Each structure stands twice: as structure tokens, then as C-alpha cells.
Amino acid sequence: MTPFTQRVITIIQSIPEGAVMTYGGIARAAGSPRAARQVVRILHSMSRKYKLPWHRVINSKGMISLTEDESGSLQQLYLLGEGIIFDERGVVDLERYQYDPGPVLELETEQDFNPEPEDHLLPPFE
User: Fold this and answer.
1) Distance of CA 126 to CAs 27, 67, 69, 70, 123, Å?
2) What is the pLDDT of residues 26-67, one digit of tens each?
3) pLDDT digits over 71-119, tens only?
4) How far apart (Å, rounded) are the C-alpha atoms in residues 100 and 7?
5) How many Å apart are CA 36 and CA 12, to the nearest integer?
6) Is the separation of the CB atoms in 32 and 68 below 8 Å?
7) How many whole angstroms separate alpha carbon 112 and alpha carbon 121?
């Protein structure tokens, strides 16, 4: 696993309930501001293995990016359940809800990651 991937996983795991981060915000915090698409890839391929709170990651417009109706609705339902409010256009107020992880979080070693799958808030895969 690359150091960037480890940082992305650590940052996503640190997003608290009731907060969100953008794909680009995670990439910047992980040290690679232009790697938002890599964050998408990591979320898609590693959410189950590392129990990532995938639903707390949205796009830079404050919107859910999942295009499949069921997946997007599930993500919105999880966020609403955590107290995040959407406006009438389906936009989250990033000034209010965006999480800032602060300085780069301490990297965990690969052995520190718990790869045991769990059926808690898992993203629906197409």
C-alpha cells in the first residue's frame, strides 16, 4: 500500500459523525491536491476492507456524487441520520459541515489497519 493510500484511509476514518469532506479536500490533506480521482478509487476499492465511512465524502459542490438513485439516496439517508442538512437543491453547507483534519494525521502501519470486513454502512456496488 502506498503512503498516499494509507494517508487517505486514515483521513477518511477520522471524519467524525455529522461532518463531511470532499474528495479534493481529502486529496489535499493526504498531500496530493490533484488526486481527487484517486480518493474515489480508494473509496470504491477499500471501503469494505477498512470500514471507511464512505457516506461522509461528497463532491466540491457539496453534493452527493453517486449517480445510481439507490446509492445516492442511501448516502443522503446516512448523512441525514447524522444530522447533516441538505438544502432544497440537495446541497450540504460545506462551511458548516466540512471537516478539517488539521495537520497530516500520523500514518498507521499496514499492520495497524483492520482488514476484517463488516456489514456496517457499506457502499452499494454496481
Assistant:
1) 24, 10, 11, 10, 9
2) 999 999 999 999 999 999 999 999 999 999 999 999 999 987
3) 889 999 999 999 999 999 999 999 999 999 987 555 554 445 554 544 4
4) 14
5) 13
6) no
7) 21
What are the C-alpha distances in Å from 71 to residues 6, 65, 78, 102?
25, 10, 11, 30
Q: What is the DSSP string of 43-64?
A: HHHHHHHHT--GGGEE-TTSS-
Q: Which residue carries 461532518 as its cell? A: 19
Backbone φ and ψ of 96, nearest 5°: -90, -40
Global confidence as pTM: 0.81
How many angstroms from the chain centroid is the CA of residue 116?
19
